[in-house]
């Protein structure tokens, strides 16, 4: 099944009204739970002065809590909160002079990555996929309740969800950068940001 937004023209019009002459960039970070997507997204935001938007804020409203923590939410829910995230793009670019938005999510299904690819093309946004990777022992440690994880959407269920997503994750077909979050992410992000600035 192919997922598309029926209001993409309206979203494009809102973005056109914001036209600043600066190329808009969207950095989407994909990875399994516990790999460090959000930490990585915040580092991208720090180095680019971009806006980091947490899709979990939408997911908490759209998806029933037990569904979020007990299994992988069905495609119809995933479509809803991805679509809402895309609809928020005009507001996010409106408050950011660098015209860079960063979002992180598992993005584990190719059909939904294609949805983002097609939306970015329609909206004249340059999309960059970044895959975060990490060894499983480190992930296990991170997914224990601890520093900075008390408010995480999967707190207490992280490793169980990690295993579910590991089984369901479809390899990225599109060009993407890879960041190993078990190592220092600062120079890895710096390299990607430098390349990004060359295409601005």
Offer a concise description of the structure.
With 200 residues, the chain is α/β, with parallel strands linked by helices. The chain contains ten helices and five strands; from the N terminus they run αβαβααααβαβααβα.
**Which strand order do you get reading across the main beta sheet?**
2-3-1-4-5
**Secondary structure tally: strands:** 5
State the share of residues found in helices, binned by percent.
40-55%
Mean pLDDT: 89
Largest sheet: 5 strands, parallel
- At the fold tier of CATH, the topology name is Rossmann fold
Main features:
200 residues, alpha/beta, Rossmann fold, globular
Task: Give structural notes.
- It is a single chain.
- The chain is α/β, with parallel strands linked by helices.
- It has one domain (8-193): 3-Layer(aba) Sandwich (Rossmann fold), CATH 3.40.50.300.
- Helices cover 50% and strands 15% of the residues.
- It has helices at 8-17, 37-48, 56-62, 65-70, 75-87, 89-94, 110-122, 136-142, 158-168, 185-198, and strands at residues 24-30, 51-54, 100-105, 125-133, 177-180.
- The protein has a five-stranded parallel sheet, sandwiched between helices.
- The longest helix is centred in the last third of the chain and has 14 residues, at 185-198.
Question: Secondary-structure blueprint of this entry?
Answer:
Elements: H1 8-17, E1 24-30, H2 37-48, E2 51-54, H3 56-62, H4 65-70, H5 75-87, H6 89-94, E3 100-105, H7 110-122, E4 125-133, H8 136-142, H9 158-168, E5 177-180, H10 185-198
Parallel strand pairs: 1-3, 1-4, 2-3, 4-5
């Amino acid at each position: 099944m192919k997922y598309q937004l029926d209001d993409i023209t309206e979203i494009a019009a809102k973005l056109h009204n914001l036209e600043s002459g600066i190329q808009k960039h969207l950095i989407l970070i994909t990875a399994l739970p516990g790999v460090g997507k959000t930490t990585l997204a915040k580092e991208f935001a720090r180095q680019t002065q971009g806006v980091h938007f947490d899709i979990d804020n939408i997911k908490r409203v759209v998806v029933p809590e037990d569904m979020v923590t007990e299994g992988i939410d069905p495609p119809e829910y995933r479509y809803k909160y991805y679509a809402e995230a895309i609809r928020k793009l005009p507001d996010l670019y409106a408050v950011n002079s660098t015209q860079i938005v960063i979002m992180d999510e598992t993005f584990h299904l190719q059909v939904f990555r294609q949805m983002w690819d097609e939306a970015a093309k329609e909206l004249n946004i340059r999309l960059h996929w970044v895959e975060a990777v990490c060894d499983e022992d480190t992930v296990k440690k991170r997914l224990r309740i601890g520093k900075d994880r008390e408010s995480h959407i999967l707190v207490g269920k992280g490793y169980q969800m990690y295993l579910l997503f590991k089984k369901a994750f479809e390899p990225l077909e599109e060009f993407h950068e890879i960041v190993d979050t078990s190592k220092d992410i600062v120079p890895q992000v710096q390299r990607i940001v430098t390349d990004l600035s060359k295409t601005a």
